[in-house]
Specification:
By secondary structure, this protein is of the alpha/beta class. The chain contains eleven helices and ten strands. The protein has a seven-stranded mixed β-sheet with strand order 4-5-2-1-6-10-9. The chain is globular. The protein starts with a helix and ends in a 20-residue tail after the last helix.
């Protein structure tokens, strides 16, 4: 499909539902969405129509969006779960306020969820002093064999890869000492929730495995509106990247091209 045709086609809730079908996303599974609303194009009904489409498509499953607040917590110690805005896009901020959506209490890397067992999925994140602990919502994505949909953003925005590095205890990825933060529940209850922050900006280099994930069947590509879309399989991605990181723990520390011979039997 040429670019002029893409730009001329109306983008509606119905067309976005068809895009999700074309991406072969499991409507009864678990889906995490990272997004750039601007990349989707002019949608009839705006951001709400986008959320309506994704929510309707996943009505028999579990829909999760990140509602991170790390950008605000650099200057604050209190995370108000019902009030502190998300710093990762307009869709995430609108989603967290929707009826039926529940948000986790992690002060820097919260998620919001809608659908099957949503409250259980987000529960307990405030107990962990790291952003993506294995027992948190980020680890539960792996337990549920979730898919991750990247709409108009690349792998540098894929928080789940932080989790893979964290679960392998890759050195130098987190601060040694936690910052004392607090999670404030809707009823005003204040919960101590210290968090160790990400340090080395390895996320800048996550895209170096884009072709590898695609070639190995851990990621597929398509379109969502006018945006490039990537769908990651959490289980396959974890298996592949874990094997690579065990050989080369500093894989993402810089943008050096990956040498396949460094990973015999894997690449």
């Amino acid at each position: 499909m040429d670019e002029k045709r893409i730009q001329s086609e109306a983008i509606t809730k119905a067309s976005l539902l068809q895009d999700l079908k074309n991406l072969n996303i499991d409507p009864s599974g678990t889906l995490l969405v990272h997004s750039s609303m601007k990349s989707i194009g002019q949608v009839e009904g705006g951001p709400d129509a986008v959320l309506d489409a994704i929510s309707e498509y996943m009505r028999d499953g579990l829909l999760v969006l990140p509602t991170h607040t790390w950008a605000y917590m650099k200057e604050n110690v209190d995370f108000h779960v019902a009030e502190t805005p998300s710093c990762v896009g307009v869709l995430t901020e609108l989603f967290r306020k929707r009826r039926g959506v529940v948000r986790s209490l992690h002060p820097t890397h919260s998620v919001a969820a809608l659908g099957r067992d949503a409250a259980e999925f987000v529960s307990g994140d405030e107990r962990y002093d790291t952003p993506c602990a294995r027992g948190s919502a980020w680890g539960k994505l792996l337990d549920l064999r979730a898919e991750i949909l990247l709409i108009g953003v690349d792998l540098t925005k894929n928080t789940f890869i932080h989790g893979i590095e964290e679960w392998l205890n890759i050195p130098g990825r987190l601060s040694e000492q936690p910052t004392q933060l607090y999670a404030i529940k809707p009823d005003g209850t204040r919960i101590s929730a210290p968090v160790r922050a990400h340090t080395a900006p390895v996320w800048d280099h996550y895209s170096k495995v884009d072709d590898i994930l695609t070639d190995k069947g851990a990621m597929r590509k398509g379109r969502f509106g006018q945006a490039d879309a990537r769908v990651c399989d959490t289980a396959r991605m974890t298996e592949l990247l874990s094997a690579m990181l065990r050989i080369e723990p500093d894989l993402f520390l810089d943008g050096t091209a990956i040498q396949p011979q460094r990973f015999p039997g894997i690449l």
